[in-house]
Amino acid sequence: MATIEVTETSPNSFSVTVHGSQVTTHQVSVKPEYAQQLLNTPHTTTELVAASFSFLLDRESNSSILRSFDLSVIERYFPEYPKAISRYLK
After folding, report:
1. Confidence (pTM)
2. Rg value, the chain, Cα
C-alpha cells in the first residue's frame, strides 16, 4: 500500500510525494471553485488532494500519474471522479 504525503507549497498549489514500489513526486494545482464543488463536507483542500491520489492509486500505479496537473484533469480520464471522491474523504 502506498503512502501519500501532501504539502501545500503556495495557495492552491501542492507537492505530493507517493511512496509506492517507487517514490514519485507530483505538483498539483487546485482552483478554489473546483475544490468547493467537490467538498460538500468539512474537509480541507489538502485532504481533497490526498483523497484524489488514493482514488488515482486504486486505478493506476504512482509512476503512471501525471507529474504536474490541475486536479480537474482527473475528471477527463476518470469521469466517475466527482461522484466517487466523497468515498475517499475520511
Report:
1. 0.95
2. 12
| Contact (CB, 8 A) for 68 and 27 | yes
With vertex at residue 88, the alpha carbon angle to CA 40 and CA 70, rounded to the nearest 5 degrees, is 75
Q: Which helix (H) or strand (E) holds 27?
A: strand 23-29
Q: Using CA atoms, how far apart are residues 77 and 36, in angstroms rounded to an integer?
A: 20
Residues ≥6 apart with Cβ < 8 Å to 58: none
Instruction: Give the three cell numbers for residue 61.
Output: 500505479
Helix, strand, or coil here: 43? coil
11-54 confidence digits (pLDDT tens): 999 999 999 889 999 999 999 999 999 997 789 999 999 999 99
Under DSSP, the state recorded for 61 is -
Partner residues linked to 14 by β-bridges? 8, 28
